[in-house]
Amino acid sequence: MTKVYNVDYAWRLLINDLVHNGVEREPRGLKTKELLAVSLAIPMAEPLLNLKSRNLGYRFAAAEAAWILDGDNRLATIMPYAQKMGMFSDDGLTLAGAYGPPLKDQLGWAVQALAADDQTRQAVITLWRPRPGPSKDIPCTVSLQWMIRDRKLHCVATMRSSDAWLGLPYDIFTFSCISAYMLTWMLDPVEECNKVSSLGHLYLNLASSHIYEKQWEQAAAAGADPTQAFRPRRIYNAAPWVSEPEKFREHLNLLAQEKWSSLPPDGWLVQEYHELEQARRRQRVAEHVPPPTGTPGPLVDALFGKPSPRKSTSPFMPKDGE
Questions:
Q1: Do residues 121 and 131 make contact, with C-beta atoms less than 8 angstroms apart?
Q2: Tell me: the pLDDT tens digits for 279-310?
Q3: Under a CB-based contact definition with an 8 Å cutoff, are residues 178 and 153 in contact?
Q4: What is the pLDDT of residue 157?
C-alpha cells in the first residue's frame, strides 16, 4: 500500500528519487531522467505545493482548475495566466488535449454513479482520446476514478506521462479541485443519509514520472535543501461559500485574480468576499429572509458543511420528468 504524505514531502521525495535514481531517456529527442510505475498518495484537503524552491504560479493553479471545471479549451481564457501554453496549440485557438471538454461531458455520469451506489467502483471518466492524431497537445492523464470509503471521497488518477517538476504540482491541485467540486454536489441535504462528508486521498499512478534536463540542476537543489518547511496550503480554510458548487468555482476565479502575497500562509481566504457574504447573511437574519437555494451550512472538518435542506439544482442530475 502506498503511504500517504503531505504534498510538499511527497513531491520532494519523488524529486530526490528522480535526481539520484532516474534512468536517462530521450523521448522526442529530449533528455530526461525517468522512473516507471510511480505511485503517490496525498491528502486532497491540502493539495498545493508550498516550497520556495519550486515557486509555483498560484494564480495560474487556480485559473487552470477553474478553466477545466468550466469545460473550456480556449487559449484566450487561459493564456493571460500562462503565455507558454500557446506553444502547445495546433490551431492557435484551442488546446486539443484540454481536460475541460471531456470532463464536462462525463463528470455528471460519475456523480450519478456514486449517488446511486456509494460503494461503486464504476465512477470513472476518461481523459485520453482514443487513437489521437498528430498534435502538440496529447493528454497526459488517462483517467480519473472516484470512490467513497469511510464517508470520504477518494480520487485515483492514472497518468501515462507526468513531468514531476513542471506539471505534477498543478495536476495534484487540479485533481483535488475537481474532486472538491464533485463533493459539493454529493452532500446529502438530510444529515442522517450522508454517505460522504469530506475529501479523502488522491492516489496517483504515474506510468512515466520524469524531469527534463533543463530542470535537473533546480531539481537537485530542491531535493537537497533540508531547510524547507513542509507546510502545504489548504484549498478552503473555513471559507463557507465553497460548499456550494458555483461558489466554489467563483472562489477559484477570484483566487486567479488575487495577489497571493496578501493571503495568509495557512489558507486562501479572500477576506473582502468573506466579509461581504457574512454581511449578507446577517442582513437576511435581521430581516427574517429565508436563505437562497443552495446556501451552505456550517463546515465539517473545516472542509465542507452540512448543507441546509434544499432541492438539488445540480446540472449533473436530470430535471423532473426527464
A1: no
A2: 555 665 666 554 433 332 222 222 222 333 33
A3: no
A4: 98
CA atoms within 13 A on the CB side of 218: 13
**The predicted structure's pLDDT at residue 321:** 35
Give me the sign of the Cα torsion angle 154, 109, 123, 133: negative
Q: What's the pLDDT at 95?
A: 95
Nearest CA among 84, 177, 190 for reference residue 136: 84
Closest CA to 11 of 118, 123, 164, 155: 164
Q: Which three cell numbers stand for residue 38?
A: 510511480
Give the per-residue pLDDT at 313: 37
Within 10 Å of residue 286's Cβ, how many Cβ atoms? Answer: 8
Name beta bridge partners: 4: 41
Instruction: Tell me the pairing of strands 152-159 and 23-25.
Output: unpaired
Question: Does 104 score more than 80 pLDDT?
Answer: yes
Pick the CATH number of 7-235 from 2.40.128.20, 3.30.572.10, 2.60.40.3200, 3.30.200.20: 3.30.572.10
CA–CA dist 190, 203 (Å, integer):
29
| Extended beta strands in the chain, E state | 23-25, 32-43, 124-126, 141-149, 152-159, 162-163, 198-212, 299-300, 304-305
pLDDT tens digit sequence for 168-214: 999 999 999 999 888 888 865 444 446 887 889 999 999 999 999 99
The three cell numbers of residue 112 are 450519478
Q: Which helix (H) or strand (E) holds 281?
A: helix 271-286
Q: Which residue has the higher pLDDT, 75 or 242?
A: 75
What are residue 25's phi and psi, to 5 degrees? -135, 160
- The alpha-carbon radius of gyration of the chain (Å, integer) is 20
Specify the 3-state DSSP secondary structure of 150: coil
